[in-house]
């Protein structure tokens, strides 16, 4: 019998048979017995039985309004919500069987409280769909289990965070309670509470079953007229270019036929990047191994809530009379070459990587140290750079939508995000701000930056900003249409403005500089005989803004060129009441109020280079030019103590 505790203390020499023929490296495996065919902790999976035909489960239609690609949580939720919103000529294509990629082995946890109001709303909708709507519509049980959730606070800061979550939950009617260590022990007798400050208990959190959920979703969608086709891989995406140079989705190719469609939804999970390549769309996600182990029976664990310990990066999922123990590593294993043949498959578990979770789990529930391991589950999951999903229409191709990169949270965010995607496709951008996606928390070290900006001067490297030029015969018309403020001041002016969407909601804020007509004054600035504008946009939303502007230009038929120099130009921002004083020592120009007034820009010399200087806010200047950022920044350091510097700039 193998025990969790012994996995921390020793290495077992016996290696069990590989869980997947695609495991490329030799890893040490540890188990109480050889791994069975079905390792995931569910009553059933949708794995295809031997002898069943490998062809498509239904004939392919010649055309469809929307083709959803991928039969996991997001794909099934998206086609369900499309059909529910009245769009019934829709098709879901799954290369194997439903859930075969990553959904089938997911832990299926649903926590209702997150630090973002948007995510709280998305999670609430998922819970309603899984626990209520589907059963009412179909009479089928999705496998939802409401056993509650418990967040662990090992320090005061974490408990304060959970108190804020509780306050946010009250706004949305989510019941939650902050418990003392003693109250936590009463609720969860097997838990060690000696090192706890407290916990946050959410009684109506729970667990989802992937097979039951996806089966019920597709049945409900099919009942409304949608078509779900399994065993039908996608081999290509046809894209056409119209007379205005706009790329649009034309058709989806498979080995069994082609479906003409103006809209594709990429819900392919780990395989989403490969699918994007077929249409010329970049999908910035990466595949990693994600693992958990399933224990033998634990006396007294029945009916306990699921547990999430953020400080230890561990979760404990109730599995009948056992637990699933998993977590997220600081040294994850990447799946470098994603295979198209990987379906209902797993990797061998690397105990060198996974052991860190066992230590945290045993500390929290000491009974685990003498508990056997029934099975291990190590499968692929897709992750993004900012830990937020990729959603919406791709900027490269109109009609190509993304619903992928869910960072191991596709089951619990699936219902809410599936609904928003469906709304996006049918009605346009949803009302929820899917780009201001999470609440950013300011940390203590930022105080020094704020004080420097308020009392002295600070220099920030803002080269990550988007830098676009808008030129062409209709540039003025386009600017009038795009921007809320009047940007058609005299050449040399800079205006802070917003862009709005069709509903009148704010799409973005940015600065727009009207340029002098004629030959370019800077190496990268385009030459223009008519109107020309320079746009500076926040780096985190630059791609989104590019897509919005380009879409407007195309839809309105404006004869304009939008040029992106974001990767070629640097930008530094000098802020604070002493900024003018500092810059006057660096720039070969008169920076007095009369010569350089607020809301203006001009070409000047800095460190021997021509740069564009913008006075855009009281006490804030920016300098932009290709290749000059760090030279100018180094020159700016001279008036200050060289020790008085921070990660992204210098301060005085």
From TrEMBL:
Residues 65-424 form the FAD dependent oxidoreductase domain. Residues 24-59 are annotated as: Disordered. One of its GO terms (cellular component) is mitochondrial matrix. Residues 34-47 have a biased composition (Basic and acidic residues). InterPro entries: FAD-dep_OxRdtase, FAD/NAD-bd_sf, GCVT_N, TrmE/GcvT-like. One of its GO terms (molecular function) is sarcosine dehydrogenase activity. Residues 24-33 have a biased composition (Polar residues). SUPFAM superfamilies: FAD-linked reductases, C-terminal domain, FAD/NAD(P)-binding domain, Folate-binding domain. GO terms for biological process: sarcosine catabolic process. Residues 445-612 form the GCVT N-terminal domain. Gene3D superfamilies: Aminomethyltransferase beta-barrel domains, D-Amino Acid Oxidase, subunit A, domain 2, FAD/NAD(P)-binding domain, Probable tRNA modification gtpase trme, domain 1. Pfam families: DAO (PF01266), GCV_T (PF01571). PANTHER family: SARCOSINE DEHYDROGENASE, MITOCHONDRIAL (PTHR13847:SF200), SARCOSINE DEHYDROGENASE-RELATED (PTHR13847). This is Sarcosine dehydrogenase. It comes from Dicentrarchus labrax (European seabass).
């Amino acid at each position: 019998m193998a025990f969790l505790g012994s996995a921390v203390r020793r290495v077992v020499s016996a290696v069990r048979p590989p869980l997947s023929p695609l495991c490329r490296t030799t890893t040490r495996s540890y188990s109480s017995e050889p791994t069975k065919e079905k390792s995931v902790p569910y009553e059933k999976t949708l794995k295809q039985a031997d002898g069943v035909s490998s062809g498509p489960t239904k004939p392919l239609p010649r055309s469809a309004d929307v083709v959803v690609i991928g039969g996991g949580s997001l794909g099934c939720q998206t086609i369900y919500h499309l059909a529910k919103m009245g769009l019934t000529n829709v098709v879901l294509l799954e290369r194997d069987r439903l859930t075969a990629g990553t959904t089938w082995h997911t832990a299926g946890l649903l926590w209702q409280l997150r630090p973002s109001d948007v995510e709280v709303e998305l999670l609430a909708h998922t819970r309603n769909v899984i626990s209520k709507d589907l059963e009412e519509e179909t009479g089928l049980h999705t496998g939802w289990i409401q056993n509650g959730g418990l967040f662990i606070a090992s320090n005061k800061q974490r408990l304060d965070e959970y108190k804020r979550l509780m306050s946010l939950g009250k706004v949305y009617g989510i019941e939650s309670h902050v418990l003392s260590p003693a109250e936590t022990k009463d609720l969860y007798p097997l838990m060690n509470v000696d090192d706890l400050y407290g916990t946050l208990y959410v009684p109506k959190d729970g667990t989802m079953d992937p097979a039951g959920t996806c089966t019920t979703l597709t049945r409900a969608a099919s009942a409304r007229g949608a078509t779900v086709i399994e065993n039908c891989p996608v081999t290509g995406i046809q894209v056409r270019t119209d007379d205005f140079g706009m790329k649009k989705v034309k058709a989806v190719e498979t080995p069994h036929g082609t479906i003409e469609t103006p809209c594709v939804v990429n819900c392919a999970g780990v395989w989403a990047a490969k699918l994007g390549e077929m249409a010329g769309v970049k999908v910035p996600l990466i595949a990693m191994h994600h693992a958990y182990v399933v224990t033998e029976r634990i006396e007294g664990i029945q009916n306990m809530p699921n547990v999430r310990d953020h400080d230890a990066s561990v979760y404990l999922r109730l599995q009948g009379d056992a637990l699933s123990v998993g977590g997220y590593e600081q040294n994850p294993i990447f799946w470098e070459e994603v295979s198209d043949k990987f379906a209902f498959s797993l990797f061998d578990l690397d105990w060198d990587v996974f052991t860190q979770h066992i230590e945290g789990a045993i500390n929290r529930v000491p009974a685990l140290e003498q508990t056997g391991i029934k099975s291990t589950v190590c499968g692929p999951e897709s992750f993004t750079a900012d830990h937020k999903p990729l959603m919406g229409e791709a900027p490269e191709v109109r009609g190509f939508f993304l619903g992928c990169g869910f960072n191991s949270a596709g089951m619990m965010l699936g219902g809410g995000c599936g609904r928003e995607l469906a709304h996006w496709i049918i009605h346009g951008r949803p009302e929820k701000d899917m780009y201001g996606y999470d609440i950013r928390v300011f940390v203590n070290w930022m105080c020094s930056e704020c004080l420097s900006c308020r009392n002295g001067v600070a220099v920030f490297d803002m080269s990550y900003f988007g830098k676009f030029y808008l030129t062409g015969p209709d540039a003025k018309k386009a600017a009038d249409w795009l921007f809320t403020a009047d940007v058609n001041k005299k050449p040399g002016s800079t205006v802070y403005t917003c862009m709005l969407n069709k509903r009148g909601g704010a799409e973005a804020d940015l600065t727009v500089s009207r340029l002098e007509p004629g030959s370019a004054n800077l190496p990268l600035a385009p030459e223009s005989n008519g109107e020309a504008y320079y746009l500076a946009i926040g780096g985190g939303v630059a791609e989104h803004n590019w897509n919005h502007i380009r879409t407007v230009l195309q839809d309105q038929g404006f004869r304009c060129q939008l040029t992106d120099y974001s990767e070629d130009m640097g930008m530094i921002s000098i802020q604070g009441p002493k900024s003018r004083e500092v810059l006057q020592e660096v720039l070969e120009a008169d920076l007095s109020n009369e010569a350089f007034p607020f809301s203006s820009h001009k070409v000047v010399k800095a460190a021997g280079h021509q740069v564009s200087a913008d006075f855009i806010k009281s006490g804030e200047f920016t300098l932009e030019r290709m290749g000059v950022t760090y030279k100018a920044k180094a020159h700016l350091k001279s008036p200050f103590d060289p020790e008085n510097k921070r990660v992204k700039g210098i301060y005085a």
